[in-house]
């Protein structure tokens, strides 16, 4: 096996880069996390943030139908 040194010296990309508009990390944030702009882990029925604070975790289903 030849040990070819691939260019693995990539510059660290900022993790805080503004995402365009497609949050792929969190499928769905609960209401609490949404209101507080927290990073919801999406755990059900109670996410980590709500679980730690003892808040009721509510996940609002995506309602595409806007009336
Ligand atoms: Zn949450
Ligand atoms: Zn929650």
From TrEMBL:
Keywords: Metal-binding, Nucleus, Transcription, Transcription regulation. It comes from the Eukaryota. GO terms for molecular function: DNA-binding transcription factor activity, RNA polymerase II-specific; zinc ion binding. The keyword Transcription regulation applies. This is Zn(2)-C6 fungal-type domain-containing protein. It is found in: Nucleus. InterPro entries: TF_fung (IPR050815), Zn2-C6_fun-type_DNA-bd_sf (IPR036864), Zn2Cys6_DnaBD (IPR001138). It comes from Pleurotus eryngii.
């Amino acid at each position: 096996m030849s040990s070819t040194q691939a260019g693995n010296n990539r510059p660290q990309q900022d993790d805080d880069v503004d995402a365009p508009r497609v949050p792929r990390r969190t499928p769905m944030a609960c209401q609490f996390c949404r209101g507080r702009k927290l990073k919801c882990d999406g755990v059900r029925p109670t996410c980590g943030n709500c679980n730690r604070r003892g808040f009721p975790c509510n996940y609002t289903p995506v309602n595409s139908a806007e009336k």
